[in-house]
Amino acid sequence: MSLPLPIIDPKRCTGCHRCVDICPTRALDQIGGKAVLRYPDLCTYCTACEDVCPTDAIHLPFAIVFARPAPVR
Q1: Measured distance CA(26)–CA(64) in Å, rounded
Q2: Are 7 and 15 in contact (CB under 8 A)?
Q3: What is the distance between the alpha carbons of residues 68 and 27, in angstroms, rounded to a whole number?
Q4: What is the set of domains in the chain, with CATH numbers?
Q5: In 1-73, where do the E strands start and end?
Q6: Strand 28-31 and strand 34-37: pairing?
Q7: Burial tier of 11 (Cβ tally within 10 Å: 0-12, 13-18, 19+)
Q8: How sure is the predictor about 63, in pLDDT bands with cuts at 50, 70 and 90?
Q9: pTM for the predicted model, two decimal places
């Protein structure tokens, strides 16, 4: 199963470079002053780019669900 890739809204992107700088795999780059997912195969869905974007220009269209461990019986 593959997850959907991050969506970057170029209208909201201000080119601040924060997402590019924080990406641990360097999947993001800037082209024409806007963030782009240049290397989608490198994306690990860590959500760092979404978390650091000050204009909410990056959206990862999936939910991360944390489940409580089952009680030990």
Answers
A1: 22
A2: no
A3: 32
A4: 7-59 (3.30.70.20)
A5: 7-8, 28-31, 34-37, 58-59
A6: antiparallel
A7: exposed
A8: low
A9: 0.78
